[in-house]
Amino acid sequence: MNNIKNTSLLRATCSANDDAIAILNPANGDVLTHIPLISVSDIHKYIERSVLAQKQWQSTTAAERSVILQRWYELMLENSDDLARIMTLEQGKPLAEAKGEVMYGASFVQWFAEEGKRTYGDTIPSPSSSKRLATIKQPVGVAAAITPWNFPIAMITRKAAPALAAGCSFIVKPANQTPLSAYATAELAYQAGLPRDLLIVINHHSSVVIGDVLCEHPDIKKLSFTGSTGVGSQLLKQCASTLKRTSMELGGNAPFIVFDDANIDDAVKGAIASKFRNAGQTCVCANRFYIHDAIYDTFVEKFTQAVSELRIGNGLEPGVSIGPLIDERAKHDVLSYIDNAVSQGATIHYGGDSLDGLFVTPTVLTQVSQEMDIVQTELFGPIAPLIRFYDDEELLTHANDTIYGLASYFYTQSIHRALQIAEKLEFGMVGINEGLISNEVAPFGGVKHSGFGREGAKQGIDEYMNIKYLCFGGY
Ligand code: NAP
């Protein structure tokens, strides 16, 4: 049964009309429901309400804010089956993965419920005997976020939880393809006791229009964006007009490296998890595989066997491990990347088929070389290009030869090599003998064109706070 309206979490739906968008199920094209869109003047009204709410909220104690966040976390867990189902229906990822994302998303709420109580300032030894120096941290004010469709809950809570814990109010524009998860998650925050004006979800026909307002409005003090590098770069320019604080979580091109001394079975397991989660549509997905010549053939054989065991289908069906791509454009792009790689000399070792609807078989490409376009492209789909390498120096040059710098992975059993390679990879995150690295306690973020700012961890809340320096004179 695919009727999405049978969950009480979906209060923000409506019937079809000119001021609504249809939300589609990518697994079969069904219209799940409609979401009301708001006008530009409504966005401005919401911002005014958010400003007022924030002034009150910042005067509550961190402990009071923590109680509400903790309750929100508990409600997310209690409603995790409903949230996961909504996510699978609108986004397509298998139900078990959706449940995993709900838990991952909730973990940020719990983490920042605690971290909000630890936003310490400093006392600073004074260079002058007549002065005493200290710092305090204060919320930036109204924070706004624009988030993508690939993690429709976690990309919101990873920003909303630290913002709210810090004493900010929060306005989010989720992707127009996956707003239901956002509205459902916000509904639980309200049920937890959060005033509605502190967490506002907005959707409009045009993301460009929302972007203009959020970037250029003087009362919004912070913009946190997760999405593509091109859009992030555009939003940054727009934020310059109001000198807004910004965090940019952008695209990636993760190398996945298997050295000749690696445990190959572990590497295959990590490669499958890193590459094919969410049908390859994650910013930290392994994007290109560098396999040492000495173990290349063994790795290809074992990896291909594991890929052939992945089951494609509607994410609601038990046992499915790969769902549909998000839309026609995504499918077209994935197929054209494969065609292009083949035209440049790559071989389709496994898969490469376009199936009905938005499904593409997981694909293994061999005979891939560093010069091919596929090595420089963020694939965002279930394609694994395998490149043979011979020595560590050449490997490092190739692995770092990208504008991106988000995640990277390598497998080795040598501690010496692990330290050396980890230090030399130009990426914000490195998985060593591990294909899944994200969690709420570690700082998530990139360098180079993958953006700046860190989410999660003790650093995540600093993105929503200003440091104020206090100088006590006349001592
Ligand atoms: P996208 O096209 O940049 O869209 C992301 C969000 O930005 C959506 O809400 C979209 O709204 C909105 N948007 C698009 N154009 C805009 C504009 N001109 N002004 C204001 N808002 C605009 O990215 P995507 O294709 O959805 O997501 C995939 C990208 O996100 C990949 O590059 C991936 O690597 C990156 N990503 C990064 C991270 C990270 O943590 N670093 C995490 C997840 C994803 P509409 O949906 O309404 O168009």
Written overview of the protein:
There is one protein chain. The chain has 475 residues and is an alpha/beta fold. Helices cover 38% and strands 20% of the residues. The protein contains 14 helices and 18 strands. It has helices spanning 40-57, 62-78, 80-91, 95-115, 154-166, 179-191, 207-216, 229-239, 264-276, 296-308, 328-343, 373-376, 392-399, 415-424, and strands at 20-24, 31-36, 123-124, 132-139, 142-146, 169-173, 199-201, 220-226, 245-249, 254-258, 286-292, 347-350, 363-368, 383-389, 407-411, 429-432, 451-452, 465-472. Strands 12-13-14-11-10-15-16 form a 7-stranded mixed sheet, with helices on both faces. Helix 4 (95-115) runs parallel beside helix 5 (154-166) and helix 7 (207-216) packs parallel to helix 8. The protein is globular and about 70 Å long. The protein starts with 19 loop residues before the first strand and ends with a strand. 50% of the residues are buried. The mean pLDDT is 97. It binds NADP nicotinamide-adenine-dinucleotide phosphate. NADP nicotinamide-adenine-dinucleotide phosphate binds next to helix 7 and helix 8. It comes from Vibrio zhugei. Belongs to the aldehyde dehydrogenase family.
Structure at a glance:
With 475 residues, the protein is α/β, with parallel strands linked by helices. It has helices spanning 40-57, 62-78, 80-91, 95-115, 154-166, 179-191, 207-216, 229-239, 264-276, 296-308, 328-343, 373-376, 392-399, 415-424; strands spanning 20-24, 31-36, 123-124, 132-139, 142-146, 169-173, 199-201, 220-226, 245-249, 254-258, 286-292, 347-350, 363-368, 383-389, 407-411, 429-432, 451-452, 465-472.
